[in-house]
Amino acid sequence: MVRELKEVQGIIIKRQKYKEADLLAKVFTKNDGIITMIVRGALRPKSRLGAATMIFSYGTYVINTSGHGLSMLRTYKEVKQFDNLYQDMTKNAYASFIFDLIDHAFIEYQSLGKYFDLGEFAVRKINEGVDPEMITQIVQMQLLEAYGVKPELEKCVICGKTKGIFDYSIKLGGIICSDHFYQENNRLHLKPKETAILRTIGLLPIERLGNISISEDSKKATRDAIDRIYRQTVDLNLKTKKFLDELKLF
Ligand SMILES: [Zn+2]
Prior knowledge:
The chain is α+β, with helices and mostly antiparallel strands.
């Protein structure tokens, strides 16, 4: 098994205690996927490697790796941090959930491609103060494709119509136009504007998604719709989601 030294650029998305004073830190990279690194001595006071692998740090990490299993962090270059994420528990909870969700859609070292950009976009926006709930909904809608359950959002799944009044059917895997509302009782019964929000956030390239301002009622309705879509098509049971839902009760 060939081990090599390699530089990877990425964001630290998770860390947990390993052996003695060592940590396991997960780094989220575009081309090299999600890598778990052993960080020796990270829990000792004044550990430089420990400081460089705080949650939501990002930069260049030099690792010793064989391309699978655990890699070893050797050193780092130019590491920065998304400060607001680190300090704000709500933002932190949203970002942790987003990365957990992306993490579960991929196997280790599998290239993330555009989903890296999606995750990076999300944490940058949340760090800048954009509504984390809306950013999370965008990520969830766009990530369904990575889970192999890409919804049809462009046209009615039954007749192909692209304009009109639409609702969403989980069973049919996409939007249906009002011509067929009578034949699909299990549709989500969303208001037309709520379905329009799901279409917009699921279809638009992230760089074109500016500041979306949506009423609290609509946001709640799309949140419930997305939760149902995930429960019935992806069926994950993530602690980060549970924590986020609990946090919203306060
Ligand atoms: Zn139709």
